[in-house]
Amino acid sequence: MTISHWQRTTRLGTLHADVVVIGAGICGISAALHLQRCGLTVRAVERGVIGGVGSGASARNAGFLMRGCADNYADAAKQYGRAKAAALWRLTERNLEGLRREGIDSLSVTQRVPSVLLALGEDELARLRESLTLMHEDGFAADWWDASTNAGDSTWKQLASKHPPLGALVNPHDGATNGVHVLRMLASKLSCPVHEQQEVVAIEEHGTGVRVHVTDGEIIARHVLVCTNAYVPLLLPGFAGVVDPKRGQMLAIRPGVFQLGASYYANYGSEYFRQTWDGTVVVGGCRTYHAEREVGYEDRVTPWVQRDLEKFANRVLGEFDASHDITARWSGVMGFTQHHLPIITRCWGENAAATGNDKSEKVWFCGGFTGHGMSMAYEVSRLAVAEMLDGVESSFDLPS
Ligand SMILES: Cc1cc2nc3c(=O)[nH]c(=O)nc-3n(C[C@H](O)[C@H](O)[C@H](O)COP(=O)(O)OP(=O)(O)OC[C@H]3O[C@@H](n4cnc5c(N)ncnc54)[C@H](O)[C@@H]3O)c2cc1C
Description:
Blueprint: E1 6-7, E2 13-22, H1 26-37, E3 42-45, E4 64-65, H2 73-80, H3 82-102, E5 115-119, H4 122-137, E6 143-145, H5 154-162, E7 167-171, E8 175-176, H6 179-187, E9 194-195, E10 200-206, E11 209-214, E12 217-226, H7 232-235, E13 244-253, E14 263-266, E15 271-275, E16 281-285, H8 303-317, H9 322-325, E17 326-336, E18 343-348, E19 359-367, H10 373-390
Helix pairs in contact: 1-6, 1-10, 2-3, 3-10
Bound molecules: flavin-adenine dinucleotide.
């Protein structure tokens, strides 16, 4: 696919825009699209090469378009309050509806498949059962599978006979896709340029606006929306400890080895697996068993996580020949927040470039998707744009 608006220019010089979006992952590209539809001139800048192979987590994820957040509904209701949990679940439903309106279902890589939250232990069983009850009370469609369920899914049958899950909460209307294809599709709707291989190195006040210094020039704008997710502390150091970089890893098992009809999420989301459109099974997670080592910005696979992923796949899917059947292994860096909710905020202090301690009206951040950005960022970036331009409060503030 040729994407003419991905621009690699050796010397940008001084450019102008209403808004500069920093980072061209799912969040930045969605934000640029929302801004463009508000009639603004936009320039997106990306330090990597998105048009070719992808750069950040958006091009390296498992592609679950799953309702909800990192926590199950019962835990989210306990942590954030029932109303906020419900609002979050609705937001992710709107995220998927929005992506479907943009046309993701026309991509060959997109599947309409349920997400199945497996209870492999008694404690998780209780949390998922409570989630089901609360979700029904709050008007959400959700189903329950147990070992005797005839789910029409050979993996479920295999799981049920081999290592019977104690039960599973099913989101019947979810989907799954491939992040690279979604990015390309969304970007094809942009009339604004996405400047590739342009790293933003500094943001400073400039009259009533902002000057954004990039690798080969500068862009002067009224607003900046920072959509760099895990990488935000590298540009705006005040975000250190607010958005933490954590490494996620995956492996792929060649088509024909296993057959799945759903996307699976297990051990409170610590592990997840699904079958892609071409029959490949992707398995990810196991970070939590090595939590202290799987942090930072180094994008690499590690033997300890990959070994655990193989063991997990063996346990839940069945035997396979790792040396023959595993076709790919990869990693990506995710941005985690302490409260596991995304953040939309004005940047502050030195982050907002010499605005003292006041939060800037000009420089905003949207991100911290805690491993769920495909399921949230299209909609959360829309809320960020509404808050930045029109002051419509989103309720995704910094953790208190
Ligand atoms: C292995 C793995 C599996 C995952 N699975 C799922 C899943 O199944 N479902 C789901 O919903 N989510 C999943 N996620 C999480 C999801 O991929 C992320 O939450 C989402 O992609 C974040 O999007 P983003 O646009 O905010 O950040 P990113 O995609 O990381 O994009 C940020 C961009 O900013 C650029 N950048 C950084 N600094 C600068 C700078 N100074 N100047 C210019 N550009 C800069 C980076 O190069 C990058 O391209 C997974 C993540 C991983 C790693």
